[in-house]
Structure formats: structure tokens, C-alpha cells
UniProtKB/TrEMBL annotation:
GO molecular function: metal ion binding; peroxidase activity
Keywords: Heme, Iron, Metal-binding, Oxidoreductase, Peroxidase
Record's protein name: Heme haloperoxidase family profile domain-containing protein
Occurrences of domain Heme haloperoxidase family profile (ranges): 1-191
Organism: Dothistroma septosporum (strain NZE10 / CBS 128990)
Family, per entry: Belongs to the chloroperoxidase family.
Highest taxon above the source species: Eukaryota
Reported cofactor(s): heme b
Length: 241
């Protein structure tokens, strides 16, 4: 979302993000379908102090473990270690190391890179949190960047596009990228999450018996993918959900 703001697909100041603004921005910039865009918006809206007003600001999304922030980020430190807002090159280098010598990222290599971040955070962070919701969100993030920077079917994306997207928070137009012609949908991301998991040595977290598109949909919309309970800013603040 920061990248979309940097390019003007959503307001530069990241404020007052409504459903029409978010869905149009995601469609125009990345060809993300309305089904997925609407659920991404719904997850963001839960971060707003007054969600019934129908908008949220980007800076509301950094609440720890809610609604989308989580430990073992691909490019940020865990909140336990300090300010998790800025890009962290040391963290992202752990991901890049798996793509060393590769022109294109693939699903198998990406799944190992993602799991390496989980293992690193689990080892170093005494407050590490990684349940079904965080599991699905982290796989979803990997599926999203492979889809919008590469191909939502094959999961192949040029490493230089990925590096530019994360390190500079911009779309890699100068490197040759263009908005994908094939739309990224809730279904396509759900399918890619399953393929990423199949190629990973990671085990399913307790309570999550199978990976489904519905479980991912619930996770990004603020529901516990196991219990179905809706999370909101109030219960997250007092740690009751």
C-alpha cells in the first residue's frame, strides 16, 4: 500500500482510504480483482478507531499482530526489537540470499525464503507469535508479490522486480515491469498459497487442518481462520482476540 501511495494510485498522504479508493488503486496499479481488493480493504478498515465511518489511514495498519502486521515479516523487524515501520535491509537480505544467482523467483525457492524468516524470528524473538492467522497472512504476502510482480499462475517473478518493490517501495517500471494482464484474484492467491505450502518444510500451525481460500479470506478480513471469531481494534488492543 505504501508503494501505491508513492505512485499516486491512492492518496500520497495515505489518509482517508475508502473502499472505492482502495479497490480502484489496487486494480489500476496491480490488476487485483475486486473480490480480493474488497477483503484487503475490510482487513484495513478493522484498524480504524471508528470503522463505521468507512475509511482508514495507512499508519493505522502497523498495530502489532493486527490487522495485517505480524512477526517474521519479509522486510521489517519484529516489533519486539523496535520500530517495525521502516524497511530493514538486513532482514530482507535473508530473503534475497535464497534468490542468489537466480534471474527469476519461483514458488519452491520463495517458500523456503519465507520459512527461513519464520525460523529466524522464532529463534531470536522471545515474544514470537505465529498462529493460523499469521501463517496464512505470511503465505498470502509471498503469493501476492509473486503474482503482481510476475505471473499469478506460474508464480515466476523477476528477482530485480522483487528487489525494487521492497527496497525502494516503488513499482519497477524502470526495470521493465508493467501492470499484469492477468488478474490476481482471491482464488488465484489461495491456490498459490497452497502451492507455496506444498513446497515448504513448514508444518501447519495448531488448529489449522487444511489450507483453503476461505481460510485465507477470513484471515485478511480479520476473522480467526480456525474459530471464525471477528477481530476488531478493541479486542486486539486488550488482547482478547
Amino acid at each position: 500500500m505504501n508503494t501505491l501511495a508513492n505512485h499516486g494510485f491512492i492518496p500520497h498522504n495515505g489518509k482517508g482510504l475508502t473502499q472505492p479508493i482502495v479497490t480502484k488503486g489496487l486494480a489500476d496499479a496491480l490488476n487485483i480483482g475486486p473480490d480480493l481488493a474488497n477483503f484487503l480493504f475490510a482487513g484495513g478498515l478493522l484498524s480504524a478507531p471508528q470503522p463505521l465511518l468507512g475509511s482508514f489511514d495507512l499508519n493505522m495498519l502497523d498495530q502489532h499482530n493486527f490487522p495485517i502486521e505480524h512477526d517474521a515479516s519479509l522486510s521489517r523487524i519484529d516489533t519486539f526489537f523496535g520500530n517495525n515501520r521502516p524497511f530493514n535491509q538486513t532482514i530482507f537480505n535473508q530473503v534475497l540470499a535464497f534468490y542468489d544467482g537466480m534471474e527469476n523467483a519461483t514458488i519452491p525457492v520463495t517458500s523456503y525464503a519465507k520459512y527461513a524468516r519464520v525460523q529466524d524470528s522464532q529463534k531470536r524473538n522471545p515474544t514470537f507469535t505465529y498462529g493460523p492467522r499469521e501463517f496464512l497472512l505470511s503465505y498470502g504476502e509471498a503469493a501476492l508479490y509473486l503474482s503482481v510482480l510476475g505471473d499469478p499462475t506460474s508464480g515466476i517473478a523477476p528477482v530485480k522486480y522483487i528487489q525494487t518493490f521492497f527496497e525502494q517501495e516503488r513499482l519497477p517500471y524502470n526495470e521493465g515491469w508493467r501492470t499484469p494482464t492477468q488478474q490476481t484474484t482471491l482464488n488465484s492467491v489461495g491456490n498459490m498459497i497452497g502451492r507455496l505450502y506444498q513446497d515448504s518444510p513448514e508444518s501447519l500451525p495448531e488448529g489449522l487442518e487444511v489450507i483453503t481460500t476461505g481460510a485465507y479470506r477470513d484471515a485478511i478480513a480479520g476473522y480467526n481462520p480456525v474459530t471464525g471469531v471477528l477481530r476488531n481494534a478493541t479486542c486486539a488492543a486488550v488482547r482478547t482476540c
